[in-house]
């Protein structure tokens, strides 16, 4: 238990022998077409079931179940909170008032504009995320790390095109999620995202939790604001009038209308919460949605967060990349015959003068790690990523018709609301 | 706002949610909801929703100091209760691990099922139960017991009979001795959260031993029901306890029928 708790790396390493690890590594690093233990292709995801709006007591909720039986439930709750005006904001206000006093009408206008700018900025701490994993305390390393890894891209995702030409959804979502939480200068929403993992993590739970959070946020509704401007906020009692946290395009918008015409299908929503994908590199291959055994032999484990760009052409935008400590570092190394005391005599006796030749031939330079390796003998990865590998992973996620688009389209097809 | 039961109930004889004194809330349950565990269940009593999953009986954890010697005569039951942050009306913030309420429910569940299950069949092993409260609206302990029973049945762990629990309360504070000539207080069955907060209540759990062998021939028509669990946190005059118990046990009987229906339905599939 104690070792499990301290595991900050991708997940507890499964008990696999060095020979098995080596076999797995070899089949996953086969050039061009890796052979995965469950027969998937490199970019294929495991099947999953999803539903949203299952908890009536929350602003938004979702449940996702993977085929291996792991399930997660996410509930989003929103509370109204008084904004504590920080030093910077109060300075802006004082400035604005001062300007107003000096210049009269014109200064007043510019001052209020500056104040509004400060108010719409929002603050990252208004989004709070906590993750419950059975067997872990919620201040253990793994839940805290996972929560921060998912909160960061969520808070930082600001539509890039908001200044220039933008879709109708984008105007409402100016300043990203942080901006959406601002009610007025004195009040804001605080968002609590609680993630429950219902079973022990069989594989690294990040993709599961990220997809569930994504769906829950899409389903999240906030009550309609009735008060105006700087009044104390009060809201419409009618829950049917509530507005989605992530605004929808109008229903008259043709869903996938462009695909029939042969063009790029327009996304149903311009602004969406980010999705974090787990990507591993084994040899020269890049593999998506790895299971626990595959992570155990990975050279590199990356968590890549993407979201819709916001433009009408529906491109993807990279939000963050995080490397995750690959657990292969902690595995037991295999011992090659040439170094094994038990078999040393046998090889020396059998081969005689020939013995030097095959030994020199067997040690191969692994082009990825730059280390000498004997094929079939497991050597734990020491970490380190080639820039080329990272670039390849990111490209596979972001490219048109790539994995990121596929995942987001799959999530769009889930009925929300 | 006259929303408290103690003032409106004597006038209308209807509770806050429109039930009469002896009515249960809508009870819905599913079995085998999570394929990754040995047994799992989902149970909703009114707006209280609970997911329960059982792992084991399995070998105890290696790192545990007590793992080797403890449970040498039978399985050890471990219960982990987690009340989700979004379960209540307001989001509850907790410092670090678990709060008082969930650890208390966990302890009661553990002692109830430790003595209820046939643990002697699994020496040196652990049965771990994980309870997640998705939404809390009163009768948490009772709902947790019922959910655990279903999950344990799903896991195929032998027990003498279903352990079903229910809450019962009084429609007033009931702090003075009962007056048989002027009895205006009614017992209430299956309390919801607002009722639970203002009225005295108890949680009772009963079980029936399924008659086996010779016993089956002797007790043929008699439905023998045993109280195996009883907790009470609030204060009530002792003269009311009997009424509350009788109503609670009757509620357990109704719940048992519903749970049996759920189990039979899942077996038919």
SS class of chain A? alpha+beta
Q: Which blocks of ≥5 consecutive residues of chain A have pLDDT under 50?
A: 1-11, 87-119, 160-172, 250-267, 351-361
CATH topology of chain B: Ribosomal Protein S5, domain 2
How many individual helices of chain B?
A: 6
Helix content of chain B: 25-40%
* Proportion of residues in β-strands of chain A: 15-25%
Beta fraction of the residues of chain B? Answer: 25-35%
Tell me the count of domains of chain A: 1
InterPro entries (chain B): ExoRNase_PH_dom1 (IPR001247), ExoRNase_PH_dom2_sf (IPR036345), PNPase/RNase_PH_dom_sf (IPR027408), Ribosomal_Su5_D2-typ_SF (IPR020568), RNase_PH (IPR050080)
Keywords (chain B): Endonuclease, Hydrolase, Nuclease
Organism (chain B): Aspergillus violaceofuscus (strain CBS 115571)
Protein name (chain B): Exosome complex endonuclease 1/ribosomal RNA processing protein
Short description, anyone?
The complex is a heterodimer of chains A (417) and B (269). Chain A is of the alpha+beta class. Chain A has 14 helices and 13 strands.
Write up this protein.
The complex is a heterodimer of chains A (417) and B (269). Chain A has 417 residues and is an alpha+beta fold. Chain A has a single domain (2-83, 122-334, 378-412), classed as Ribosomal Protein S5, domain 2. Helix content of chain A is 34%, strand content 19%. Chain A has helices spanning 2-6, 18-28, 87-103, 105-121, 141-156, 168-172, 176-180, 206-219, 257-261, 292-296, 341-351, 356-362, 387-398, 403-412, and strands at residues 48-52, 60-66, 71-82, 127-132, 187-197, 221-222, 243-244, 275-282, 285-288, 300-308, 316-324, 364-365, 372-373. In chain A, the strands form 4 sheets. In chain A, strands 1-2-3-5-4 form a 5-stranded mixed sheet. In chain A, helix 3 runs antiparallel to helix 4 (105-121). Mean pLDDT of chain A is 73; it is low at 1-11, 87-119, 160-172, 250-267 and 351-361. Chain B has 269 residues and is an alpha+beta fold. Chain B has one domain: GHMP Kinase, N-terminal domain (Ribosomal Protein S5, domain 2, 2-Layer Sandwich). Chain B is built from 6 helices and 9 strands. Chain B has helices at 5-12, 100-116, 140-155, 193-198, 214-218, 241-268; strands spanning 27-31, 39-45, 48-59, 76-83, 125-135, 163-170, 187-189, 201-207, 226-232. Chain B has a 5-stranded mixed sheet with strand order 1-2-3-5-4. A 4-stranded antiparallel sheet of chain B has the order 7-6-8-9, with helices on both faces. In chain B, helix 2 links the parallel strand 4 (76-83) and strand 5 (125-135). The longest helix of chain B has 28 residues, at 241-268. The radius of gyration of chain B is 19 Å and the shape is globular. Chain A: GO terms for molecular function: mRNA 3'-UTR AU-rich region binding. Chain A: It is found in: Cytoplasm; Nucleus, Nucleolus. Chain A: Belongs to the RNase PH family. Chain A: Keywords: Cytoplasm, Exosome. Chain A: This is Ribosomal RNA-processing protein 42. Chain B: Keywords: Endonuclease, Hydrolase, Nuclease.
């Amino acid at each position: 238990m104690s070792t499990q708790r301290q595991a900050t790396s991708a997940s507890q390493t499964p008990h696999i022998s060095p020979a098995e690890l080596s076999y797995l590594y070899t089949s996953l690093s086969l050039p061009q077409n890796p052979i995965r233990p469950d027969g998937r292709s490199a970019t294929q995801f495991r099947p999953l079931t999803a539903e949203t709006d299952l908890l009536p007591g929350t602003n938004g909720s979702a449940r996702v179940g993977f085929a291996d039986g792991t399930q997660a439930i996410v509930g989003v709750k929103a509370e109204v909170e008084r904004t504590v005006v920080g030093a910077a904001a109060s300075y802006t206000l004082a400035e604005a008032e001062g300007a107003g006093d000096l210049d009269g009408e014109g200064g007043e206008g510019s001052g209020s504009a500056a104040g509004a700018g400060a108010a719409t900025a929002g603050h990252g701490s208004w989004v709070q995320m906590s993750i419950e994993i059975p067997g872990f305390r919620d201040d253990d390393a793994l839940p805290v790390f996972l929560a921060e890894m998912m909160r960061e891209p969520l808070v930082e995702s600001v539509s890039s095109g908001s200044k220039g030409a933008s879709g109708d959804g984008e105007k409402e979502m100016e300043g990203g999620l942080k901006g959406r939480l601002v009610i007025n200068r004195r009040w804001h929403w605080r968002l609590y995202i609680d993630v429950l993992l219902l079973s022990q993590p069989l594989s690294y739970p990040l993709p599961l939790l990220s997809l569930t959070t994504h769906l829950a946020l899409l389903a999240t509704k906030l009550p309609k604001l009735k008060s105006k401007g700087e009044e104390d906020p009060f809201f419409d009692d009618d829950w049917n009038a509530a507005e989605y946290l992530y605004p929808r395009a109008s229903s008259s918008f043709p869903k996938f209308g462009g695909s029939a015409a042969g063009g790029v299908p327009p996304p149903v929503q311009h602004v969406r919460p980010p999705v974090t994908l787990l990507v591993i590199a084994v040899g020269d291959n890049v593999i998506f949605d790895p299971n626990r055994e595959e992570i155990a032999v990975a050279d590199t484990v990356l968590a890549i967060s993407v979201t819709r760009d916001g433009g009408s052409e529906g491109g993807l935008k990279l939000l963050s990349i995080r490397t995750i400590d690959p657990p292969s570092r902690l595995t037991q190394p295999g011992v090659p015959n040439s170094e094994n005391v038990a078999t040393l005599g046998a090889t020396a006796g059998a081969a005689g003068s020939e013995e030097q030749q095959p030994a020199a031939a067997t040690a191969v330079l692994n082009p990825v790690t730059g280390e000498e390796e004997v094929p079939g003998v497991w050597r734990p990865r020491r970490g380190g990523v080639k820039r080329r590998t990272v670039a390849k992973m990111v490209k596979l996620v972001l490219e048109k018709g790539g994995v990121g688009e596929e995942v987001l389209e799959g999530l769009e097809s889930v009925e929300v609301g | 706002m006259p929303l408290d039961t103690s003032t409106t109930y004597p006038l209308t004889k209807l509770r806050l949610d429109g039930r009469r004194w002896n009515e249960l809330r809508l009870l819905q349950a599913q079995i085998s909801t999570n394929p990754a565990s040995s047994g799992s269940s989902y149970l909703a009593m009114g707006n209280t929703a609970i997911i329960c999953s059982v792992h084991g009986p399995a070998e105890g954890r290696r790192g545990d100091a007590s793992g080797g010697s403890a449970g040498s005569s039978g399985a050890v039951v471990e219960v982990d209760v987690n009340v989700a942050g979004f379960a209540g009306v307001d989001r509850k913030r907790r410092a670090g691990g678990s709060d008082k309420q969930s650890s208390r429910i966990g302890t009661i569940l553990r002692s109830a099922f430790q003595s209820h299950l046939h643990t002697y069949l699994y020496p040196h092993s652990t049965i771990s139960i994980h309870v997640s409260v998705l939404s809390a609206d009163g009768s948490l302990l009772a709902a947790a017991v019922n959910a655990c029973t279903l999950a344990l049945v799903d896991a195929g762990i032998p027990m003498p009979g279903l352990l079903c629990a229910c809450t019962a309360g009084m429609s007033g504070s009931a702090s003075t001795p009962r007056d048989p000539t002027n009895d205006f207080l009614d017992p209430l069955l299956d309390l919801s959260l607002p009722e639970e907060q203002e009225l005295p209540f108890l949680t009772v759990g009963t079980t029936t031993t399924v008659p086996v062998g010779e016993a089956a021939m002797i007790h043929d028509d008699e439905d023998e029901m045993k109280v195996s669990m009883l907790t009470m946190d609030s204060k009530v005059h002792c003269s009311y306890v009997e009424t509350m118990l009788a109503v609670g046990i009757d509620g357990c009987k109704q719940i048992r029928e519903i749970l049996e229906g759920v189990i039979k339905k899942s077996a038919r599939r």
